[in-house]
Design goal:
Length: about 240
Protein backbone atom coordinates (compact mmCIF):
# COMPACT_ATOMS: atom_id res chain seq x y z
CA UNK A 1 0.00 0.00 0.00
CA UNK A 2 1.16 3.55 -0.80
CA UNK A 3 -0.71 5.77 1.68
CA UNK A 4 2.30 8.08 1.84
CA UNK A 5 2.27 8.84 -1.88
CA UNK A 6 -0.02 11.09 -3.88
CA UNK A 7 -0.99 11.52 -7.53
CA UNK A 8 -2.33 14.94 -8.50
CA UNK A 9 -4.38 15.17 -11.71
CA UNK A 10 -5.20 18.23 -13.74
CA UNK A 11 -8.83 18.07 -14.91
CA UNK A 12 -9.42 19.44 -18.42
CA UNK A 13 -7.08 17.74 -20.86
CA UNK A 14 -6.02 15.04 -18.39
CA UNK A 15 -9.16 13.41 -16.99
CA UNK A 16 -11.23 14.43 -20.02
CA UNK A 17 -10.40 15.96 -23.39
CA UNK A 18 -12.71 18.96 -23.04
CA UNK A 19 -10.70 21.84 -24.46
CA UNK A 20 -12.82 22.10 -27.61
CA UNK A 21 -15.92 22.56 -25.43
CA UNK A 22 -14.11 25.39 -23.67
CA UNK A 23 -13.19 27.04 -26.97
CA UNK A 24 -16.78 26.85 -28.21
CA UNK A 25 -17.99 28.31 -24.92
CA UNK A 26 -15.59 31.25 -25.09
CA UNK A 27 -16.81 32.06 -28.59
CA UNK A 28 -20.48 31.87 -27.59
CA UNK A 29 -19.79 34.30 -24.76
CA UNK A 30 -17.81 36.65 -27.00
CA UNK A 31 -20.79 36.66 -29.37
CA UNK A 32 -23.24 37.34 -26.54
CA UNK A 33 -21.18 40.37 -25.51
CA UNK A 34 -20.94 41.66 -29.12
CA UNK A 35 -17.14 41.74 -29.07
CA UNK A 36 -16.65 40.48 -32.62
CA UNK A 37 -14.02 38.08 -31.26
CA UNK A 38 -13.65 34.48 -32.45
CA UNK A 39 -10.94 32.20 -31.13
CA UNK A 40 -10.14 29.68 -33.87
CA UNK A 41 -8.18 26.51 -33.15
CA UNK A 42 -4.67 27.89 -33.87
CA UNK A 43 -5.31 30.95 -31.71
CA UNK A 44 -6.77 28.86 -28.91
CA UNK A 45 -3.78 26.52 -29.08
CA UNK A 46 -1.48 29.51 -28.61
CA UNK A 47 -3.55 30.78 -25.68
CA UNK A 48 -3.61 27.34 -24.07
CA UNK A 49 0.16 27.26 -24.10
CA UNK A 50 0.70 30.87 -23.07
CA UNK A 51 -1.79 31.85 -20.37
CA UNK A 52 -3.30 29.87 -17.49
CA UNK A 53 -6.84 30.56 -16.28
CA UNK A 54 -9.95 31.73 -18.11
CA UNK A 55 -10.12 35.35 -16.97
CA UNK A 56 -6.40 35.59 -17.48
CA UNK A 57 -6.73 34.39 -21.09
CA UNK A 58 -9.43 36.95 -21.84
CA UNK A 59 -7.47 39.78 -20.22
CA UNK A 60 -4.25 38.80 -21.99
CA UNK A 61 -6.01 38.65 -25.36
CA UNK A 62 -7.71 42.04 -25.12
CA UNK A 63 -4.53 43.64 -23.80
CA UNK A 64 -2.70 42.36 -26.88
CA UNK A 65 -5.28 43.12 -29.60
CA UNK A 66 -7.19 46.01 -28.04
CA UNK A 67 -10.25 46.30 -25.83
CA UNK A 68 -13.78 46.56 -27.27
CA UNK A 69 -15.10 50.01 -28.03
CA UNK A 70 -16.20 51.91 -24.94
CA UNK A 71 -14.03 49.90 -22.55
CA UNK A 72 -11.20 52.05 -21.23
CA UNK A 73 -10.98 52.18 -17.44
CA UNK A 74 -9.56 49.36 -15.34
CA UNK A 75 -12.94 48.88 -13.69
CA UNK A 76 -14.70 48.59 -17.05
CA UNK A 77 -12.12 46.03 -18.17
CA UNK A 78 -12.52 44.02 -14.98
CA UNK A 79 -16.31 43.98 -15.24
CA UNK A 80 -16.23 42.96 -18.91
CA UNK A 81 -13.79 40.12 -18.29
CA UNK A 82 -15.80 38.87 -15.31
CA UNK A 83 -19.04 38.97 -17.30
CA UNK A 84 -17.58 37.21 -20.34
CA UNK A 85 -16.02 34.54 -18.15
CA UNK A 86 -19.19 34.02 -16.12
CA UNK A 87 -21.26 33.49 -19.26
CA UNK A 88 -18.55 31.29 -20.77
CA UNK A 89 -18.62 29.08 -17.68
CA UNK A 90 -22.39 28.74 -17.91
CA UNK A 91 -22.19 27.83 -21.61
CA UNK A 92 -19.50 25.26 -20.84
CA UNK A 93 -21.57 23.68 -18.07
CA UNK A 94 -24.57 23.46 -20.41
CA UNK A 95 -22.44 21.83 -23.13
CA UNK A 96 -20.93 19.41 -20.64
CA UNK A 97 -24.38 18.42 -19.38
CA UNK A 98 -25.52 17.69 -22.95
CA UNK A 99 -22.34 15.86 -23.97
CA UNK A 100 -21.33 12.26 -23.45
CA UNK A 101 -17.66 13.09 -23.18
CA UNK A 102 -15.67 10.10 -21.87
CA UNK A 103 -12.63 9.86 -19.66
CA UNK A 104 -9.40 9.98 -21.62
CA UNK A 105 -8.03 6.55 -22.59
CA UNK A 106 -6.37 4.75 -19.71
CA UNK A 107 -7.63 7.12 -17.01
CA UNK A 108 -10.26 4.76 -15.57
CA UNK A 109 -7.78 1.90 -15.28
CA UNK A 110 -5.13 4.19 -13.84
CA UNK A 111 -7.43 5.67 -11.17
CA UNK A 112 -8.75 2.25 -10.15
CA UNK A 113 -5.28 0.77 -9.86
CA UNK A 114 -3.84 3.72 -7.97
CA UNK A 115 -6.74 3.80 -5.52
CA UNK A 116 -6.60 0.03 -4.94
CA UNK A 117 -2.92 0.34 -4.09
CA UNK A 118 -3.50 3.10 -1.58
CA UNK A 119 -2.26 6.14 -3.46
CA UNK A 120 -3.90 9.39 -2.38
CA UNK A 121 -5.63 10.96 -5.39
CA UNK A 122 -6.24 14.66 -5.93
CA UNK A 123 -7.54 16.97 -8.68
CA UNK A 124 -6.04 20.44 -9.18
CA UNK A 125 -7.71 22.52 -11.88
CA UNK A 126 -7.63 26.14 -12.99
CA UNK A 127 -11.30 25.80 -13.93
CA UNK A 128 -14.32 27.07 -12.04
CA UNK A 129 -15.44 24.94 -9.08
CA UNK A 130 -18.88 24.28 -10.60
CA UNK A 131 -17.31 23.02 -13.82
CA UNK A 132 -14.88 20.74 -11.98
CA UNK A 133 -17.67 19.38 -9.79
CA UNK A 134 -19.71 18.57 -12.88
CA UNK A 135 -16.83 16.60 -14.39
CA UNK A 136 -16.48 14.67 -11.15
CA UNK A 137 -20.21 13.92 -10.98
CA UNK A 138 -21.08 13.24 -14.63
CA UNK A 139 -17.88 11.79 -16.05
CA UNK A 140 -15.94 10.25 -13.18
CA UNK A 141 -19.21 9.18 -11.50
CA UNK A 142 -18.49 6.51 -8.86
CA UNK A 143 -14.75 7.07 -9.28
CA UNK A 144 -15.14 10.60 -7.91
CA UNK A 145 -15.27 9.06 -4.44
CA UNK A 146 -11.74 7.76 -4.89
CA UNK A 147 -10.36 11.31 -4.76
CA UNK A 148 -9.58 12.63 -1.30
CA UNK A 149 -9.08 16.23 -2.46
CA UNK A 150 -10.47 18.38 -5.30
CA UNK A 151 -9.13 21.92 -5.76
CA UNK A 152 -10.41 24.34 -8.40
CA UNK A 153 -9.08 27.69 -9.53
CA UNK A 154 -11.39 29.54 -7.16
CA UNK A 155 -9.29 28.58 -4.12
CA UNK A 156 -6.08 30.32 -5.20
CA UNK A 157 -5.20 33.90 -6.03
CA UNK A 158 -2.73 33.02 -8.80
CA UNK A 159 -3.37 30.50 -11.58
CA UNK A 160 -0.93 28.14 -13.25
CA UNK A 161 1.94 28.49 -14.17
CA UNK A 162 2.13 29.84 -10.63
CA UNK A 163 2.68 26.84 -8.31
CA UNK A 164 0.18 28.02 -5.67
CA UNK A 165 -2.47 25.35 -6.31
CA UNK A 166 0.07 22.52 -6.30
CA UNK A 167 1.74 23.74 -3.13
CA UNK A 168 -1.70 23.95 -1.51
CA UNK A 169 -2.54 20.41 -2.62
CA UNK A 170 0.75 19.04 -1.30
CA UNK A 171 0.18 20.68 2.07
CA UNK A 172 -3.45 19.53 2.32
CA UNK A 173 -2.41 15.98 1.43
CA UNK A 174 0.27 16.19 4.11
CA UNK A 175 2.90 14.79 1.76
CA UNK A 176 6.44 15.74 0.86
CA UNK A 177 7.42 16.98 -2.59
CA UNK A 178 9.18 13.68 -3.24
CA UNK A 179 5.98 11.78 -2.47
CA UNK A 180 3.82 13.55 -5.06
CA UNK A 181 3.57 13.24 -8.83
CA UNK A 182 1.51 15.55 -11.04
CA UNK A 183 -0.21 14.53 -14.29
CA UNK A 184 -0.66 17.45 -16.68
CA UNK A 185 -1.35 18.06 -20.35
CA UNK A 186 0.27 21.45 -20.96
CA UNK A 187 3.49 23.41 -20.69
CA UNK A 188 1.75 25.81 -18.30
CA UNK A 189 0.79 22.95 -16.00
CA UNK A 190 4.29 21.51 -16.22
CA UNK A 191 5.77 24.87 -15.24
CA UNK A 192 3.45 25.05 -12.23
CA UNK A 193 4.38 21.55 -11.08
CA UNK A 194 8.09 22.18 -11.55
CA UNK A 195 7.91 25.49 -9.67
CA UNK A 196 6.26 23.61 -6.79
CA UNK A 197 9.15 21.15 -6.79
CA UNK A 198 6.96 18.27 -7.99
CA UNK A 199 7.68 15.71 -10.68
CA UNK A 200 5.31 15.83 -13.63
CA UNK A 201 4.04 13.40 -16.27
CA UNK A 202 2.50 14.80 -19.45
CA UNK A 203 -0.40 13.39 -21.48
CA UNK A 204 -0.78 16.06 -24.21
CA UNK A 205 -3.90 16.91 -26.18
CA UNK A 206 -4.13 18.19 -29.75
CA UNK A 207 -3.85 21.72 -28.37
CA UNK A 208 -0.60 21.02 -26.50
CA UNK A 209 1.16 18.19 -28.34
CA UNK A 210 3.52 20.57 -30.16
CA UNK A 211 4.96 21.96 -26.92
CA UNK A 212 8.37 21.23 -25.42
CA UNK A 213 8.01 18.93 -22.42
CA UNK A 214 11.67 18.24 -21.77
CA UNK A 215 11.26 18.99 -18.05
CA UNK A 216 8.64 16.25 -17.61
CA UNK A 217 9.79 12.91 -16.25
CA UNK A 218 7.71 11.19 -18.94
CA UNK A 219 5.37 12.00 -21.83
CA UNK A 220 2.61 9.58 -22.85
CA UNK A 221 -0.04 9.95 -25.53
CA UNK A 222 -2.36 8.23 -23.05
CA UNK A 223 -2.15 6.32 -19.78
CA UNK A 224 -2.46 2.89 -21.37
CA UNK A 225 -1.78 -0.50 -19.81
CA UNK A 226 1.96 -0.11 -20.39
CA UNK A 227 2.09 2.86 -18.01
CA UNK A 228 2.85 1.58 -14.52
CA UNK A 229 2.27 3.83 -11.53
CA UNK A 230 5.29 2.90 -9.44
CA UNK A 231 7.73 3.85 -12.19
CA UNK A 232 6.83 7.52 -11.66
CA UNK A 233 8.31 7.42 -8.18
CA UNK A 234 11.52 5.78 -9.35
CA UNK A 235 12.38 8.81 -11.46
CA UNK A 236 14.92 11.26 -9.99
Amino acid sequence: MQENRGIIFDCDGVLIDSEELHRISYNKSFQLHHTGVVWDEPLYEMLQNTVGGGKEKITWYFTKVGWPSGISTEEEKRLLVNSIHQDKTQYYIELLRKSTIPLRPGIARFIDEAYARGYRLCVCSAANQRAVNLVMERVLKERAGKFCLVLAGDVVSRKKPDPEIYLLAKDKLGLSRESCVVIEDSQIGLQAAKAAGLRCIITPTKYTESQNFQDAIAVYSELGDNVQIDQFFLQP
